[in-house]
What does this fold into?
Amino acid sequence: MSEVLLKIEELNVNYGAIHAVKGININVNEGKIVTLIGANGAGKSSTLGAIIGLVRSKSGKIIYNGKELIHMRADAIVRSGIALAPEGRRIFPNLTVEENLRMGAYFRKDESGINKDLEWVLGLFPRLRERLKQMGGTLSGGEQQMLAISRALMSSPKILMLDEPSLGLAPLLVKEVFDVIKKIKQEGKTVLLVEQNAAVALAIADYGYVLETGKIVLEGNGKKLLESDDVRHAYLGVSV
It folds into this structure.
């Protein structure tokens, strides 16, 4: 049985008067894909923001590898082994693809390891190799998503967090990106995936949590959640 690498206990996040995350508990086991699904505004991105230190938690615990992350700076959290590919990609449009990727390794000093990881991510997304000298802003939406994921991987994280990687992508590209997420897991990485597209997320997830208005209303094995009448009705548009 794999160990719990990231543990969230009774996490609360507020934006002024808005209670965005309401006392949630989540376990992310090492080497697994864990997904948070739910409608827009359910609190998924707020949870990722709290983990990476971009959103201040009101209360609760976020324990990674035995270390409490709340009150740690975002850069220290990234150095400790957590990386985020944010919603909307947020690549550097005026840097080349290669410069974007090397920015992901900003905190690293192991040049041989950086070059090895660069080869690895270019193997995951061969299209990026063809565009190494191209400006990030000239890439298609799908290519920018590939770049955002690859840039996050360049920090050599233990946990890769992905925020809505399928957003705005054509179905064929969604399949390509999610096939790569499965390969990333096979390389021993742990993945915490936030998705509105419940079908594709649960199809590859080892474990899933369903968020509604800041609360976890369902959790369980990814495939079993995919077969759940509640999930099929609410998120897959299936009449039950």
In short: The chain is about 40% helix and 25% strand.
